[in-house]
Every structure is written in structure tokens, then in C-alpha cells.
Design a protein that fits this description.
The protein is α+β, with helices and mostly antiparallel strands.
Length: 167
């Protein structure tokens, strides 16, 4: 059985727009997975330390038969293949960050994975690309995505023309 899931993509190192396009290509190649759509690219200020370049972000929609932890492993492999080095510093610069935002209607509380992704309700760089893919989305707790958008201004979030993350 296929699960509809949303993946957050972000990069601020080593040609971020290209990193996201390559990540979408890698997502499309995952086994037992279909890449349905990718949002356009958005530019946002970095979270945490401000002495780093701005981020390029997007959201991808997948249908997958992979269990959530197997999907997480596959995403981390993509990150590593694109030069990600995991460091103790949280919210530091990175070549690629792939996060499972939503995995069907499931709530997952595992030491490696929290779904829905924590704090996504307050992150414009997640909510606006997500709304681009599914403006009528109802979140696992029954909240409409539009309710979160109303409380999360898009200040500092800039769409990069109509450039899709999928290349």
C-alpha cells in the first residue's frame, strides 16, 4: 500500500538550487516510490546562526511503499551522496537537508524520526511550498494547512520565479 508523504528540501552550500534539483532526481529514483510533484524553489534566511548564506527550499510530494524509517534511511543516503556532513551544530550550513514532513496521516514518535515534523507549523519555508502542492491539505491532527498559513507570514520568503525544484 502506497503512502502519500511530503519531504522538505533545503540547501545553502555548493550551488543550492542544483542540490535541490539533484535531490528531486534522486527522490524519483527511490525504490517503491513515485515522485508526484516538487514545488518551486524558495529563498529564505537561515535559521540559527545568521553568518551563513540564505537557504534555498522546496517541498516534494511522494507516493511510497517504503516504511517511514526505511524512507528516512534513503533520504539520509541521498544527503550523504550529495556531500552532507553531519555535525553537532544545529541549523548550520549544509549541502542538503531532507526532512520527512508528513507521512500519510501518521504520527510517528521515534528517537530518529518525529512526524509531523516538529515546528513545521511555524516555518514559512515549509508551509508555503507545501501549500503550493496541496492548498487544501488537512494535517494529521485535523487542522487545515490554511489555518497554519494564516499564522505564519511569508516575510523573508522569496519564490525564485517559477523555477521548479524538479529539473
Amino acid at each position: 500500500m502506497s503512502v502519500r508523504c511530503y519531504i522538505g528540501l533545503g540547501s545553502n552550500q555548493a550551488d543550492p538550487a542544483d542540490q535541490l534539483k539533484r535531490a528531486c532526481t534522486a527522490l524519483a529514483a527511490l525504490p517503491q516510490t513515485q515522485l508526484v510533484a516538487c514545488s518551486r524553489l524558495y529563498c529564505s534566511a537561515p535559521m540559527g546562526p545568521q553568518d551563513q548564506p540564505p537557504y534555498i527550499n522546496a517541498v516534494a510530494l511522494l507516493n511510497t511503499q517504503l516504511p517511514a524509517l526505511a524512507l528516512l534511511d534513503a533520504l539520509q543516503d541521498i544527503e550523504l551522496n550529495q556531500g552532507r556532513q553531519r555535525k553537532a551544530e544545529r541549523w548550520g550550513p549544509r549541502t542538503l537537508d531532507l526532512d520527512i514532513l508528513l507521512y500519510g496521516d501518521q504520527h510517528i514518535h521515534h528517537d530518529r524520526l518525529e512526524v509531523p515534523h516538529y515546528h513545521m507549523h511555524a516555518r514559512a519555508f515549509v508551509l508555503y511550498p507545501l501549500a503550493e502542492l496541496d492548498p487544501e491539505l488537512i494535517l494529521p491532527d485535523g487542522t487545515a494547512l490554511q489555518a497554519w498559513l494564516e499564522k505564519c507570514p511569508a516575510e523573508g520568503l522569496t519564490p525564485l520565479a517559477d523555477q521548479p525544484a524538479q529539473g
